[in-house]
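Usage example:
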Amino acid sequence: MNVAVVTRTHGRLAWREVWFAGRLRRGFMPLVLSLLTLLAFGGGSLALFSAIARAHAPVEWSERVLAWAFTLAFLLLALGDLQASLDALVAEPDLERLRAAPITSRQLLGIKLMQTLPRTLSPLLTIALPVALAYARVVGGVHPLALVVALLTLWAVPLGLGLALALPLLRAAPAARIRESLAVLATFAFVAGWLVNVFWMPRLAMNGAELTAGLRALPAPPAWSPATWAAHAATADGRAALESAGGCVLAASAALGLALAAATQLLAGIEAQAAAVSGRRVRASARREHTLAGAFLRRDAALVARDWPILLDTLASVALWSLLPLAVLPVAPLPRLELARNMLIMLSVSLGHDVAARALPLERASLAWARLSPVGGARWVRLRLPGVCIVSGALLLGAAALVCAVFGLHGHEVLDVLAFGLAAVTSASGTGLLVGAAMGDPAWTNPRAMLGPGGRNVSVWGLLLQAGLWLVVSRRVSAAEPLSPGVLLLLVAAGGTFALLMLGFAARVVERREPGAG
Amino acid sequence: MRAAPLVVESLARRFGRLEAVVDVSLAVGPGEIVGLLGANGAGKTTTLRCISGLLEPHRGRITVAGADLAGEPRVAKTRLGFVPDRPLLYDKLSAREFLAFVAALYDLPAEAAERRAESLLARLELAPHADRTIEGYSLGMRQKTSIVAALLHSPPLVLLDEPLNGLDPPSARVLKDLLREHAAAGGGVLVSTHLLDVAERLCDRVVILRSGRVVAAGTLDALRGGDARRSLEDVFLELGGADAPP
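Running the assembly step on the lines above writes:
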C-alpha cells in the first residue's frame, strides 16, 4: 500500500467536504461550530484559570480543572466518536472496494482511523487543546512534547480499547443484525453521555455559583483514568512528568495494539458477515390497501418495525429529554404543575422533532419517488403526516398518563398538561419535517445521524429554542394554576398554525429536491 | 389519432457552469423503441432524468403522451415508467410490498396491480424471492424489481437507463421481449445503453448524444448511409465515440 497516496487522497476528500469547485460545502458548518466551541472553551478556561490565579488559590485547583477537561474530551471520544470509527470499519459503502484491495486488516484499520480523524480529533482540538493552552498561558510549565503525548493518549486509549471491546461483540452478532447492533451501541453511548451530562452538570453549576466554593467542591478526577495521567504528564515537572508521559505512551500503545490484534483476528469475518446480509423473509399479507394514505401507513409501519433501532433511539432520546427538568430541579425548585408541564413540554418537543425529522430521511434515496410518481412532493409530505402523528400521539398519550399519575394531577391540571404537550408536539413535528426534508442524509448508517452534520446542529438548536419558548410561555401564563380551556385551545391552535407553516416549507423543499444527476 | 409517447423540444439542463444537455430534441412514436447512445458523460442519464421529472430542465418542453410535463406534471408522470440507473427501492420492504406501494402511487386497483405484478415477477423469475426484503437482493434482482415497478401501470412511455446492468442473459432476453411486446401494443420505449449490439438488435431508431447535444438521429439504415457493411459501432465511433467528458 502506498501510504503517502492514501493519506493525500483522504486529506483531499476531507478538504472537499469543506470547499469544492469554488464553493463552500456542507462540511464548512461543523468546522465553524468546532471553531466556536474551541473559542468558547479557550476563552472560558482562560477566564477561569485567571480567576483562580487572582484568588491566589493553590495550583492544584487549576490542575484539577485541566484534568476534568481532559476527562470530558476522553468521554466524548469513548461514548460518541468510537461509534463513528466502528461504523466506518464495518458499515461504510467503500468497504467492498477496500476488501477487494490487496491490503491487510491492520492497514484497513489504519485507513479507517485516518478517515474518521476529522471527527475523532474534534474533542481533542476543541476541548482538550484550548484548555491546555489556556492553562499553559496562565499557570505555565507545559512542555509542548508532553502536551502532544497527552493529546495522543486521549485519542488512542478510548478508540483503541473501544474497538478492541466492540469488535468481538460485533463478531458474535448475527450477520443481518450488525448494523442494528451498531445502532444499539450508539444509543447506549448516547444515553450514557446524556445522563452524565444532565445529572452532573446542573449540580456542578449549582455548587459553582461561588467560584471558590465550587472549585473546592470539585472532586479530583479518578487516579486510574488515562485522562488524569495525560493531565499529569502535561502539568508535572521533571521526573514525575516523564513517568506520567511514559505511562501515557504505554497505555496508548497497548490500546492501539489491542485494537490491531482484534482487527487482525476479527475484522475480515465481521465485514464478510455484514456483506452477506441475505434479507429476511416477510409474511405476505392478504390484506390490500385501497387508499394511498393506507399504503403510506402500511409502508411506514414496515419500515419502522424493521429498522427498529431507530425507534429505540427515538424512545431513548425522548425519555432523556423529558428528564431534563428533573435534572435542574436542585438548581431551581419548581411548583408541581409547572414541573409536570415542563417535563411533558420537553418530551413533546423532543418527540415531535425526533420522529418527524427522521420521517423523510428514513426513505433514503427512494424519496425520489415523490418526484418520479404522480403523487408530487407536497402531497407526499402530507401523506407522511399520519404516520408521524400516530407514533408521536401514542407516545405523548402514554407519557402524559405517566406524568399525570406520578405527579397526582387531576381534572383541569391533566387537561392543562396535555394541551401544552399537544401544542409543543405539533409545532416540533412541523420543524422536524422541515429539517428532515432540507438536511436529511439519504446515505445515513447510524440512526443518531439521519441528518447531515449541519442538520444535526440546526436540529439541536431548533429543539432547544422551541422547548425554551414553550417553557417561557408556561412560566409566564401561570406557573402553579391550570389555564382555562379557552387559553389552552389557543395554545394548541398556535402550535398547529406554526406546524402548518413549517409543513408548507417542507413540502416546497421536497418538491424542489433533485436527486444527484448522473 | 394516438399522441406520440414522447416529444422533447430544445431540452437544456445545466449543473452550475456545466452544460450537461444542450438543445436536445427527440421524439418516440407509438410502437417505437428508440436507443439513446453516447459516451460516458454525453448527457444520456441527465436527459432521461429530465424526461422522467426527477430533474427540472432549465429550458425546453417535454410532452409525454400528449401531456406537458411542466404544465400537467401529474398526468404526464402517470403516463411514463422509469427504470433509473440506480434502482430506487426500499431496502426494508419485500419486492411484493414495494410493488403494492408503487401501485398505490399510480392509483391502480389493488387486485389488478397484484395480478400484473405477479405476471411480471414470474417472467423475470423473481417470484420465489419476492417475499424477501430487498436489502438482501443482488444487483440483478434489484434491477428486475425496478423494471417491474416501471411496467406495473402499463404506461404509454417507458424510459430505461442502462437497464441490462446486472441482468443475467436469460433475464436480459426477457426484458428485451417485454419491451418489444410493449412497443407492439402501441407504447413507446426510450432506452439508454452503451451496448451497441443491443441497440442494433432492439431499437428501431437511435439518437446519438455528444457533449449533451444530438449529433445524429435516425434509423440504423439511415445512419449507415446505405452502406450495409458499416456497423452501428463504426457510426457511433465516427459521431459520438470520442466524446470528451463535458
